[in-house]
């Protein structure tokens, strides 16, 4: 289905065409008509399927002709990176439209806060915000959400995982009850269903390929001890045609160590984790997008929503504890119908996690041993280190001193 087939304004169609989009993805084909018809919506689809366009395009079309100066639409997202990316995509879709937007997220210099404040005080059509930052502005008394017409929760499952439930409820209490609500999520755990039942009215539902990586992702695993992982990365870069690579690690302390090791080997690498300032994270991410660095090492902060064009490879430096996180990590590649390769390093202690991933994606992962030049692979014996299946997210509590 082409975007020309939707009941959209000519200027919006021109903006979409200028971005190089002609064919709508399955989630866009189903969601856009429902949103244009003012239906509440629960949409569950795997990462990289075009969810952002599925709600931005009809949202922009609904705003046309309403030039009043107040906050008309609110999009809540889990991370500053996703807020910034959605705002950038919004600028493209609205290039020929008289629509204003602002991304509201934490970090950065004081002028960023002032720009966010001025936009909300003077009236802006669309706010894309992280819950915590928006709550901070609301506490100052100048944020008026009483005329919001459309509320969007993007990556809702990730927001709840990050502990934003109470903030979301507080924000929703300030917007009108008579509104259109759209909930987009990669997964649908019980808590998301509970939230949906509270905030949506007779919603339409879309569910596409839940919790399965895109078909065009080649998924490979290597049985490798920790001491051989850097050597394996060096081997892969020499033997494979790698244009760009994101390396995910569950431990933020590993990020700097991996970057330093790769730089010593002559590779151009940079790292992002939660300890980096917003300015540092944006600078490194821009260097990666512009190919000034070839390898980006990151924690799961980048596993949701971030769209990198022509990303050829994703490496799981360690196996994610949550099988769902595996899907989100590997989903960074093979986006927009392109091909990609996802490689997972499996040490002895993490082998028990692999059957859980295979059960979730309904596919057995191809397990390779190390080249002889690197070393000997551990035997694959996932039952040896098996641990009880954990249902839900782990919580860690630090004792007060």
Describe the model.
The radius of gyration is 22 Å and the shape is globular. Helix 12 (278-289) links the parallel strand 10 and strand 11. The protein folds into two domains: 3-208, Rossmann fold; 217-368, P-loop containing nucleotide triphosphate hydrolases (Rossmann fold). The chain is 36% helix and 16% strand. It is an alpha/beta fold. Helix 2 runs parallel beside helix 3 (51-63). The strands form two sheets. A seven-stranded parallel sheet has the order 3-4-2-5-6-1-7, with helices on both faces. Strands 10-11-9-12-13-8-14 form a seven-stranded parallel sheet, with helices on both faces.
Short description:
The protein contains 14 helices and 14 strands.
Structural descriptors:
alpha/beta, 401 residues, Rossmann fold, seven-stranded parallel β-sheet, single chain, 16% strand, disordered C terminus
Secondary structure elements and pairings:
Layout: H1 10-18, H2 26-36, E1 41-45, H3 51-63, E2 73-76, H4 80-93, E3 101-104, H5 110-122, E4 126-129, H6 131-138, E5 150-153, H7 156-161, H8 165-172, E6 180-185, H9 190-199, E7 204-208, E8 217-223, H10 229-239, E9 245-248, H11 252-264, E10 269-272, H12 278-289, E11 295-298, E12 313-316, H13 323-330, E13 340-346, H14 354-361, E14 366-368
Parallel strand pairs: 1-6, 1-7, 2-4, 2-5, 3-4, 5-6, 8-13, 8-14, 9-11, 9-12, 10-11, 12-13
Helix pairs in contact: 2-3, 3-4, 6-8, 13-14
